[in-house]
Hints:
- By secondary structure, this protein is of the alpha+beta class.
- The chain has 13 helices and 12 strands.
- The longest helix has 43 residues, at 187-229.
Amino acid sequence: MSGKLISVALFLLAIVAAGTGIIFYQTGESVILFAVILLCILLSGVLLGRQIPVRSEDAETGEASERNENLLRETDLLYDSLFDQNIDGVLIFDISGKLIDGNPAICELTGYTIEEMKHLDWSTIIKEEDMSKKIHHTLAAAEGTPQQYTLVTRNKSGKEIEVLIKMLPIKINDKVAGVFEIIKDISEIRKLEALMYQSDKLHAVGELAAGVAHEIRNPLTSMKGFLQLSKPDIKKDYYEIMEKELERINEIVGEFLLLSKPHKVSFSSKDLGPVISNIISFIQPEALLKNVEITASLEDGLSVINCEENQLKQVMINLLKNSMEAMPAGGKIQVAAENTPAGISLKIKDEGPGIPEDVLKKIGQPFYTTKEDGNGLGMLVSQRIVEAHGGQLFIESEMGKGTLVEIRLPAHEKTKTLSV
């Protein structure tokens, strides 16, 4: 019965009760009157009890349960978003250190699946010197203290990655039940920091170089002039030594000037093939004297590049001389040039002893050299020239197998037109 029908029924009962009460009142039957009125009230109460809904405890409990279920569903969705969609790697460990789960980002970072990681010996992918750090922070997190630290790890292919790790204790009823690990790859950040540091050093060196070069070049010109005038009065051997050393100082001054503020350079479109061939022909006599064989493999129709020819010649001569000096007993140098989707790749490979990894990282730093008579500016200047041409210089080396230097240069915008 609807609410309206209940209202009508109660209204009718009230009329009946009132009418009956009046009749019996007039007859003087007060007892009967009371009984009739009481009966009407009882009937009304029964109807009300059956038809008017009452909020029971079961109903309230059901609504609360539904609210909790909705909250749990929202919490699960939020967890899935933070876990599965996180761009940083996430691992979940129980209090004993057993891996429970991980998100897709950690699999992409390490190259391992979650199942593989569950059976992985962590000491095989964490550098030995970082293992004690890892253990220390893990124990601290298991005791309820959030942790943050960096370490170097290896992915499945063996590549070393520097990562920032945040450890967050998982607490249930105020007890630590496990640990969340959030792992962020900071390798690129470190590279950018190193580049900024290198840029600052180069800026300082450039300013110093400019001042020193100009201060040296003026008296150097006077010394060379007086040496020429005094040539008849100086013993030939002494004259040649002085002339050679003055020329060496002049070369160093020239390299200093290249490190100073950029000079306006005239770029022009060039076919790199003939340039490479000319340089090899130029340096071949010196190579033969040192029992070094230089071979060239140049792809036909190399892309035209926009360059300053003399600067690129300086880079190639420097690299070829480095290769020859790395093979005092002789050997082979392979020069190869080929087109790439972006431009040209020029590679110079020698058969020297190779460069240790710790030394390789320092190549290109100002004044760093492993040569007895080196000044540490050759590779720095070469890198500067390549970068000024919009290119990149890469060095790969393996002990006992030699060194490979690759220069990548962008093609000229009008290559297709110029090469026709």
